[in-house]
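Recap quiz, item 2
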Amino acid sequence: MKKIIALFVTLVLCYTASAGTNKMNQTIEDQGLTRRYHLYIPNDLPDGAPLVFILHGYGGSAESYFNSGTIANFKTLADENKMLLCYPQASVDPKSKNGWNVYYPWQINAMKVDDCEFICNLAKHLQTTYKVSDKNVFLTGMSNGGEMCYLLAYRKPNEFAAIASMAGLTLIEMADRHNYESPVAFMEVHGTGDMTSRWEGDATNQYGWGAYLPVPVAVGAVAAANKCVYEQTTELPQVKNRVILHRYYGAPSGKEVHFYEVRNGGHNWATDSFDSCNVIIEFFKKNMVK
Amino acid sequence: MKKILYIIALSLFCSVACEQNKTNDDDTVDVNTSSLTYVAENIAGHEVVIVKPNDIEFTAPLVVVVADDLELKTRMSPTPEVPDVNFKAAEHCLIGRYTLCIVGAEAGEDVSFLAAVKEAFPTASKAYLLSYRNGYAYTAAMQMPDTFAAYACVSGAIDVEPYKTLSFTKPVSFVHVHAVNNPECKWEGVEGKSASVSLSVGAVVAINENITYKTSTLMPREGKGQVSCTHYTGGKSGCDVKLYTVESANSGWCDEEFEVYNQIWNFFKAH
């Protein structure tokens, strides 16, 4: 009986927390594959509303992210700010896991799909179908989804008004293949105690994900490409782990890089240490193109 | 008898060697200033001061220092009674066996002049550039990355104005020394003037495509702020970057906190 009441309360909370429309299991044909995605459409979404992509991690799914309590706040914030949320699904990679093609060693020669093209094609499709903005397109993602944030910053900087990576990495393969061609408003949130996507990097591919840059070096590369010149360091009010924001600004383009260093934080959205969903959406709002 | 003479000779050799090691470690040396030559010269229309050991080798390396202010005759005069920081910096060329050429900051922003300075020492085996309390080492690294074998910046940072139009185009080896509470060239940058130290160093790390770093703490001097060194290495270019972070408010050489001249010279020597 208690379980039924708890379930009922949860359902009521979910209903009240996000009042928009869920559109599950939408599909689009892309590069010879049928790709799936879920949408969260706030009520009374106006034409030209911003579009936010939320990318899941390696082995994860769009559905688990769509239903995740950890990042449920994205839906509340989408309601408040009238943003269309899109949760795309990665395809199955050569290790038989759902994975975005970010040049992990086992993906390099065996995975043909270009996920950067897929995300951009999906954006165009949603712009046509739902009349959302073609300028205010935003991207966030966690872990493997965070790696997509860096890869899209390299390859498609002009397609996004701002990008926010959560526990993402720059694989050295990315840096070898691409250069940052245009400035991009970028955010990284990363735990110094992240044992999966290690703060100090992995230059020799000791841990199997492929060689990757130390996180401060990866963020520094975006700041350098933007030509940010000033740094402002502030510590957020402590909830659990200490969170230090390094704000790099003063770039000719005005595009800033925000680096949230979560002291001793692990491989997660860091929602127990600060309201990361809200911080990401606020960053997107600040970079909204008029 | 031979054995006794051998032991005496060995003891003497060891004591000399130890003394030399001690000297190199703590950056102080009992300098006989008469063993240094100070010459004021004019190169390409600018006054420079050349400091070198009297018995310097023909092919000795050259270190060009762009100083923030150039009161050459007073600041560089070899008077041990007034051992100001520049004097200590200058005397280090006795230890490192190199030629020091000090130029003023107003000339340092002219890269063709810096090239002319290098050309004025055609026999130097290597040439290095150091900017003191200004960012000309960064500007030069952007404009003339092949001219000097390595670059150094002490208590300066990227100058914001030239950085609007200039960019790093080639990897360079670079060492930066900075106090975190430097009140003049602030770590976080000075609006319209100098960039943040992290971003200045980060820009070189980015162009070098360094892929790893290691931070070590230097032995602290009693009563002085801690000094740590972050060494960025790896990447295809082979160029590396060192950042010495000094926990103090020093806006000068930071030589009270650690053996800065040796550290910079050792970095130069490695390139």
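The interface with chain B takes residues 172, 175, 200-201, 203, 211, 213-214, 216-217, 220-221, 223-225, 227-233, 246, 248, 250, 252 of chain A (CB under 8 Å).
Residues 2-17 of chain A form the longest helix (16 residues).
End of item.
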